[in-house]
Amino acid sequence: MGTIRYRSPWLSGLMLTSLGLVIVTGANASRAAAQEKAVVIPTPATDVTSDQKSSEVAVLAGGCFWGVQGVYQHVKGVSSAVSGYAGGQKSTAQYEIVGRGGSGHAESVQITFDPRQISYGRVLQIFFSVVHDPTQLNRQGPDVGPQYRSAIFPANAEQEKTARAYLAQLSQARAFKAPIVTTIEPERPFFPAEAYHQDYLTRNPRNPYIVINDLPKIESLKRVFPDLYQAAPVLVSSR
After folding, report:
1. Number of separate domains in the chain
2. Which of 38, 43, 74, 92 has its CA 20 to 30 A from that of 132?
3. Among this protein's residues, is 218 annotated catalytic?
4. Which domain holds residue 186?
5. How far is CA 16 from CA 25, 75, 121, 123, 149, in A?
6. Looking at residue 155, which CATH number applies to its domain?
7. Of these residues, 64, 71, 106, 163, which one is catalytic?
8. What confidence tens digit (pLDDT) does each residue in 17-56 have?
């Protein structure tokens, strides 16, 4: 696709006939590339215990929130995945402002999950393995800027301990070819994004941006974590 980008939500229906072959070919190539990029990594040696809780929340940033949300909506044990912003102030938690790159926010996803079915550590394992590339600094794929940084926003001290231990474990194991640049940013509130960003991957599966950048992540989830994959996504619109 060269430098052509279809990041704008208002271009979701764009599928020009003259580009049909390019899009299909690119998508197929992208799926193969994504499968190569998905990294098989060890489970966390340190994890959060469930303590009989039925619900816990994780907030993660790994590039455009369309794909991050889309992946976790297909994970067993996840009851909700909401796109939004974290890292900045409430007054700047708006797409147009965040997109300028100076708000302090990162496009993030708030994941509500049942720790009896999937642990916080396993949520992080998916994050590092198939959701994004944690070695890319202030960017992810075609999207560039601090608003697309790799970041973990722990909800409590136990999550922060687990995240830091896992980063150290992956670095020591040299799980990636380059250093991990993921930041851990505690005590940062999460703000839901605008309604038109929610369930974007499911609602716009033919958007070229989604086809090239995000649908391969769903395939990687299914391939690398078959025990955690669920075909039917958990949608915000169905809540």
Report:
1. 1
2. 92
3. no
4. 9-230
5. 14, 32, 42, 37, 31
6. 3.30.1060.10
7. 64
8. 223 333 333 444 444 444 457 999 999 999 987 777 899 9
